[in-house]
Design goal:
The chain is an alpha+beta fold. Among the domains are: 134 residues, Macroglobulin (MG2) domain (Immunoglobulin-like, Sandwich), CATH 2.60.40; 116 residues, Immunoglobulin-like, CATH 2.60.40. The strands form 4 sheets. Strands 1, 13, 14, 16, 17 and 18 form a 6-stranded antiparallel sheet that branches. Strands 4-10-9-6-7 form a 5-stranded mixed sheet, with no helix packed on it. Strands 2-3-5-8 form a 4-stranded antiparallel sheet, with no helix packed on it. The radius of gyration is 36 Å and the shape is extended. The N terminus is likely disordered.
Amino acid sequence: MRGRTPARGRAVGVLLALAFGVAGLLAWWLRADAPDPDTTAAAPPFSDVEPSPTAAGTLPPAPPAARPGPPLSALGRAEQAGQRALWEARLERARHSLDAYRAAAQYPHESRPIAEHPDQQRPFEPIAEERALRMPGGGSAAPGVRLRTTQERIFASGLESSRVTLTLSDDAGRALPLRVNRAVLKEVTPPGQTARTAEVALDVNDAGRQGDAVAGDGTLTALMQPGAQGFGSFAGTVRLELNLEHAGQPGFIYFDLVYTPEVAGAWLPGVREAASPAGLEFFVKARLLLPGRYVVSARIDDAAGKPLALALFNGEVGQGEVEFRLPVFGKLLRDGKPVFPLVLRDIEAFLLKPDAFPDRVMLPRRVGVQHRSREYALASFSNAEWASEERTRYLTEFGKDVAEAEQKLRQLGP
């Protein structure tokens, strides 16, 4: 190894002396700038957790503000104002989120105001659409001509059917003649796969048969019933394709029905009700062939026909005879002020099959009024909001966001 030269050693000594000198000056400056321990209290460490309420229900006093520092420069004041504006906006959002969740979660998931779900008020009404008469990708349609269609349902199981209607009319609403050149029912297969079932020609008529309500009224009707039309072993989407014509103008339209040949079970007669301060509960019975997670929904109106609530069941049940609980929460009754007796109507239910297609097996529809409740005094039901571990957890988390923003603003000062 090559030895260190005297000149190099002197250079290292000079550098060390300079380093020690700078360190000494820095230590002296820090001691001179430090606050007097006899006159200044130590500031508490920062924490982003809001202090817990005391036994008396009040928060402990806020920590004392730090000793004012030197006046901020214009740039510092601008940065502080920007930070304050940022945290004021965050505080507003946090308070809004907290208030919105508190208001929405005053009722449980299984008992909701029907006003939140306008699409669920009349679940069994046919799906109605209006469109021009034309071919796919074709040019202009016949002027002054509209095709109105309805479809009874889009999910079917077992031997359930879906009624389809077509009405061609002019601008004045008068029915126009419509010809069906071709009507076939077929399965919809993924690209590259071959259909396992043959196409089936369907009767589309205005003669009062096969589901047609009124003969000769200008409304054509077809009945899709896959289980009885050659698709009894098929599960998937079945499509009705129609080639139409009016006064030489061609048109094309199709209707899809998601079908499974399985049968989930059958309803049993009768509805049971039970009242308590927590609310009014309805129980409907079924005999199930398939166990699993069932989703059941029912509509609740008051005696004057005013829609009140959507009562829900969503849970795992076994095979055999079961009861589905459909509750109306006490506070929802108090807030809605319904006229008794309440009316239970239009019950829809299906077995949910996650990660599968079709993803459900339907129970038969229970259309119309299914039960009328007894008379109750509104005061017999509790006005308390829904209480649960889930609600408490969410309120706590939203409250933390509010507390953090408030604490940041206190630190930034006025």
